Amino acid sequence: MTRRPVPRPKRAAAFVLTALLAAGAAGCGIGTTGPVQAGAPASGIPRPGDGADTVRLYFAGPYGSRSVTRRTDAPLAPRQALDLLLDGPTAAERERGLTSHVAPEIAGRLTATTSEGAVDLVVPVQVSTGGLDVAAVNQLVCTAAHAEVPGGLPADQVDVRIHENGTRSTPSWTLRCGAGGNATPVTG
User: What is the span of the domain harbouring residue 106?
Assistant: First the structure.
């Protein structure tokens, strides 16, 4: 058996391989400069319903409370936002499965007044005896909290006080709108 000599790589191939390895070790060609000023910081898309030209309304959906954003000419006070809510969902909103649990007969007898960081809602029914279900309370509280309330607090910090039986002289209970569009009692 005879042995054949192993061919040696040609000088050109060795040079190309060395050049490729050197280029790979050098990186991608980005220099080591520090941060460079390039203008204003990046900004994202505004959160729906937070602009001065929009209002956020809450309706009942197949999986709980859902907010919708509608364009307005100016910021709306809670009573104005509630009037839009009481008109019910638009055709497009109904196609998305949204409904209102607030009875239409409440519309003319509901009052809303504001004070610093709070909204007082006087409802013409006894809530605890079924005059309003949980979904309706969520709709009223969250829509009022997301409207223009004196004090400029975020919606989740606005106290919404519910007065039952159509009179403000009844004891109230205080709720806030949570992140998921659910009204939660304020304790303490």
Answer: 54-185
Of all residues in the chain, what percent carry a pLDDT higher than 90? 53
Q: Measured over all CA atoms, what is the biggest interatomic distance in the chain, rounded to whole angstroms?
A: 114
Read off the pTM. 0.72
Q: What mean pLDDT value characterizes the chain?
A: 83
Task: Kindly give the residue spans of alpha helices, DSSP state H, lying in the chain.
Answer: 11-26, 78-86, 91-95, 134-145
Residues 6+ positions from 113 with CB-CB distance below 8 Å:
79, 119, 120
Query: What pLDDT score was predicted for residue 183?
Result: 94
Domain count, the chain: 1
Tokens 């607030």, located at residue: 102
| Buried b / exposed e along 29-43 (16+ C-beta atoms within 10 A) | eeeeeeeeeeeeeee
Task: Report if residue 3 sits inside a domain.
Answer: no
Closest of 130, 188, 133, 183 to residue 160, by C-alpha: 183
Neighbours of 89 (CB within 10 A): 20
Question: Is there a domain that residue 20 lies in?
Answer: no
